[in-house]
Amino acid sequence: MRRSFRLYELSLRELVQEKIAKMQAISKRGVRCQKVYANGEVPEEDFCYAIFSFIEGIDGEEVLSHLTADEQYHAGYEAGIDL
User: Fold this and answer.
1) Alpha-carbon distance 36 to 47, whole Å?
2) Which residue, 43, 58, 54, is CA-closest to 10?
3) How confident is residue 83, by pLDDT bands cut at 50, 70 and 90?
4) Which of 29, 33, 35, 43 could form a disulfide with 53 if both were Cys (CB 3.0 to 4.6 A apart)?
C-alpha cells in the first residue's frame, strides 16, 4: 500500500489536527477518503507531519474541466452522496 507523507509548518499544527479529526470521523461513516496512519511534530525543526494513505488517480480539478456538464453533475452527485 502506498502512503503519502506531508510536512506542515508547526504553526499550522492545530489546523492539521482538525483536518485529521474530520478525516477520521468521515471515514468511520464509510465515506471514501484517505486514512491517517500517523502524525506528529518535530518542534526543534519547526514542522509537523502526517502520513496518509495514497489514493491513486488524477486530481479532480484537472479532470472536471474535461468532462461534459452531465458527467460533472454525476461526479458532483456521487461526491454529495459521500458527504
Assistant:
1) 18
2) 43
3) low
4) 35
> What confidence tens digit (pLDDT) does each residue in 18-39 have?
999 998 998 898 887 889 999 9
- Nearest residue to 6 via CA among 56, 49, 53: 49
d(CA 51, CA 56): 15
Query: What number of residues does the chain have?
Result: 83
DSSP-derived secondary structure for the chain: --EEEEEEEGGGHHHHHHHHHHHHHHHHTT---PPEEEEEEEGGGTEEEEEEE---S--HHHHHTTS-HHHHHHHHHHHHHH-
Q: In which residue are the cell numbers 495514497 written?
A: 54
Q: What is the pLDDT of residue 80?
A: 81
